[in-house]
Design brief:
The complex is a heterodimer of chains A (293) and B (172). Chain A is α+β, with helices and mostly antiparallel strands. Chain A is built from six helices and twelve strands. Chain A is globular. The N and C termini of chain A lie far apart (51 Å). The relative contact order of chain A is 0.13. By secondary structure, chain B is mainly α. Helix content of chain B is 81%, strand content 0%. Chain B contains seven helices and no strands. In chain B, α3 runs antiparallel to α4, α3 packs parallel to α5 and α6 crosses α7. The longest helix of chain B has 40 residues. Chain B starts with a helix and ends with a helix. Classes of the chains: A alpha+beta (293), B mainly alpha (172). At the A-B interface, α2, α3, β1 and β2 of A face α1, α4, α5 and α6 of B.
Chain lengths: 293, 172
């Protein structure tokens, strides 16, 4: 028996398990900021990765362009028919925008929930083990990126900024399984319906929008956008289109299956979005006693 | 032999894994299979098997920590499992003959152990809710397939490199 406990390897194993649990606990807790050694390592590898990744992107882009050329004729035909409609639509959008601005001026509203400032960024890396859906982008604190900002591509919302370093940051995709990853969504239709983006069906590749009231009527093909009520994201970012609607387990709510506008596995360039309207601090919302609790 | 060659090889593979997953054509992802490159750990296994055992475990530790900080942002999982699996591989090789076929096969077993270990740990801390059968079918088998291709391509050059390295260590 004493020999068993004196076994050096066993002690090393036990000590390393204790360290493992401590480290995981340390990194799982809510962190506003990574520690500086982590930031330094991430920035360094981010720099090396962008050196390799950007030329690769050009090469890959070249071959993709070649593929695109193959069906140019067909696409051109289809697009021409749509351009005609676009002109009238554009005129109407212009008119509505102007009207909206005038009305806002009358109301003396300077900022609305839908105003935002975009920061373009390039994807320089992706987590190779696909448990954590994380991508790395080449803009950081120096460029004005902050934690929890919305991140989208031209086709729609893809996630939020998880951690910020000096020169790079990490983005957590909507497909990640994280209970904190909830976004207030709004379903465009005749009647307003609100829900929360909660989770991702990996097998069907669809986002789940839960907690929609049971009496809300939804159809296939309706557009889902951010509502801006969550406090961090601006209003009106495209999330996706409804594919299927199901009542939830107890019939009190409905769950909509939403096909995201972007393919989460084909992301090259992203836009980080800073909301113009600031959110009040939590401390300002409640009185001080509540803050202490 | 050049002192920096070994860390450089591992560093290149470390970055290559991320690029591989980013630039792999997206239609491969749309299917139900998930392919995970484990090229870095495979070469660390080869270093353990054909080169130096201690160096292998130390490199496992260093690159496990790097992997955690840079890619997963949860420190501990890979930091723990890279050296552990490397150690297990070195113990298995003590019983078996050291040649390129058995080495490759044991490396594959190591990759399977690594994947399963990470899966169980991630399940424990609620990163995933996949069940084991789905994991086996969607992730483990395609991943083993991908890494077999890598081993077939890289086994011989890696083996030669690490044997040279082991000789240079002995000469010192």
């Amino acid at each position: 028996m004493p020999q068993f406990f004196l076994n050096k390897r066993l002690i090393v194993l036990l000590v390393s398990i204790i360290i493992l649990v401590a480290l995981i606990g340390f990194s799982l807790r809510e962190r506003n900021q990574l520690s500086w050694p982590e930031q330094f390592i991430k920035d360094t590898t981010g720099w090396v990765e962008s050196l390799v990744s950007k030329p690769t992107q050009y090469v890959v882009g070249f071959f993709e362009n070649l593929q695109d050329l193959q069906n140019t004729y067909q696409e051109n035909k289809q697009l021409k028919t749509r351009v005609d409609k676009l002109v009238s639509l554009e005129a109407e959008v212009q008119r509505l925008k102007k009207e909206n601005k005038e009305l806002n001026d009358v109301l003396d509203e300077k900022k609305t929930l839908s105003d935002f400032k975009p920061f373009p960024a390039t994807v320089i890396g992706r987590n190779p083990d696909r448990w954590h859906e994380i991508i790395m982008i080449d803009k950081g604190k120096k460029d004005g990126i902050k934690q929890n900002m919305a991140v989208m591509t031209a086709k729609g919302l893809i996630g939020k900024v998880k951690n910020v370093n000096q020169f790079s940051s990490t983005v957590q995709l909507l497909s990640a399984m994280d209970p904190k990853n909830r976004i207030s969504a709004f379903i465009q239709g005749d009647a307003n319906a609100y829900g929360l983006v909660e989770g991702y069906d990996k097998e069907k590749k669809l986002l789940l929008v839960k907690r929609i009231p049971y009496d809300a009527k939804m159809k296939k093909g309706q557009t889902v956008i951010t509502s801006g009520l969550g406090g961090v994201f601006p209003q009106g970012l495209l999330i996706g289109k409804i594919v299927d609607v199901k009542p939830d387990q107890y019939g009190l709510n409905q769950t909509a299956y939403v096909k995201p506008g972007t393919n989460f596995y084909d992301i090259q360039n992203v836009i980080v979005i800073k909301r113009a309207m600031t959110q009040p601090d939590l401390s300002q919302l409640g009185n001080e006693k509540e803050g202490d609790l | 032999m050049n002192k920096f060659l070994l860390p450089l090889i591992f560093l290149i593979l470390f970055i290559f894994e991320s690029l591989f997953i980013q630039f792999l054509p997206s239609y491969l992802f749309d299917s139900q299979k998930i392919l995970i490159p484990h090229f870095l750990i495979v070469s660390i296994f080869f270093l353990t098997i054909f080169g130096n055992e201690k160096r292998g475990i130390v490199y496992g530790l260093i690159f496990g920590l790097l992997f955690d900080i840079v890619y997963t942002e949860i420190i501990g999982i890979y930091l723990f499992i890279f050296p552990l699996v490397t150690y297990v591989v070195s113990k298995i090789m003590k019983v078996l003959q050291t040649n390129i076929f058995i080495g490759s096969f044991v490396s594959l077993i190591g990759v399977a152990l690594l994947e399963t270990g990470v899966f169980e740990m991630d399940k424990l801390i609620h990163i995933t809710n996949m069940n084991f059968m789905n994991f086996l079918e969607m992730r483990l088998l395609p991943t083993l397939f991908l890494n077999t291709i890598f081993i077939i391509l890289a086994a011989y050059p890696l083996k030669r490199q690490f044997e040279k390295f082991a000789e240079s260590l002995r000469a010192d």
